[in-house]
Amino acid sequence: MARGSNSNYTFPAWLYVPAGIALLLVLGPLLGLVVKIPWSEAGSLLSEPSAVQALELSLTTSCISTVCCILVGIPLSLMLTRSGKARASGSGRAGSGGLASAFSGPMAFIVYAPLVLSPVVSGLALMFFWGRNGLLGKLLAEGNVTIAFTSWAVILAQVFVSMPFFVSTAVTALTAIPRRYEEIAATEGATRNEVARKVLLPQALPGLLTAGLLSFARALGEFGATITFAGNIEGTTRTIPLNIEIGLSSNDVDAALGSCIMLLALYVLVVGLLLMARFLSSLRKADTSHA
């Protein structure tokens, strides 16, 4: 048997130990949480008016923020991806393509910045831009438009923290599309708009679905920036994570764990949809390889 065909040579046995430790560091706390949840009281905990209200608000704001990420994140991802490929192929020329190529580095730095900012700093940044005395919020306040401590503040906080997850995943999906697909379409007379709509986006669809699901999951779990910028107002800004914080601060652990059940159920749903998106991606790759 050829040496390269044995999987043991591609993954040394000693790596199972650190890999197992890494898995334990993630699985252990999750197992502890599941064990401690009072499942016998789950029905009453899930039907609590405050929990139901928090669930409805979380789902509504997370869906809206995900749609926002999709609408503006796809064009941004296309800009970052195509300008990067233009530089790599040496085709970055004057015009819109050259301009995107020149600014793709700084744009990527800006888009991914929320990944390294602490939640409190993110909340302060939102406050200093959208708040009543913020850069844009001051102008909005003159028109009697208030953002901070409203449901819109929750949505903006979710978009701010989840946009990097969407863009990074979308960029990965778009980068995997062979350049020759665009060149063939251009040879056939397709415009840039047609190449994007009829070639790039359909090919990247499974990856874009994954990007949307990841941004939705991140929006569901957002806490720090939300409580700093939007507050913890029942019925207005109190999402599931904030409802958990209220339960813990009031020493009502069971109520907090009841909200945890909601989040866990939603995350299981997201993971299931992610697996479906991966399956669709594998089917698309198989069809492409046979074509």
TrEMBL record:
GO terms for cellular component: plasma membrane. It is found in: Cell membrane; Membrane. Keywords: Membrane, Sulfate transport, Transmembrane, Transmembrane helix, Transport. One of its GO terms (molecular function) is ABC-type sulfate transporter activity. The keyword Ribosomal protein does not apply. It holds the Pfam family BPD_transp_1. Its main location: membrane. It is a multi-pass membrane protein. Residues 55-275 form the ABC transmembrane type-1 domain. The chain crosses the membrane at residues 12-37, 57-80, 109-131, 151-178, 199-220, 255-275. Belongs to the binding-protein-dependent transport system permease family. The complex is composed of two ATP-binding proteins (CysA), two transmembrane proteins (CysT and CysW) and a solute-binding protein (CysP). Part of the ABC transporter complex CysAWTP (TC 3.A.1.6.1) involved in sulfate/thiosulfate import. Probably responsible for the translocation of the substrate across the membrane. This is ABC transporter permease subunit. It comes from Rothia koreensis.
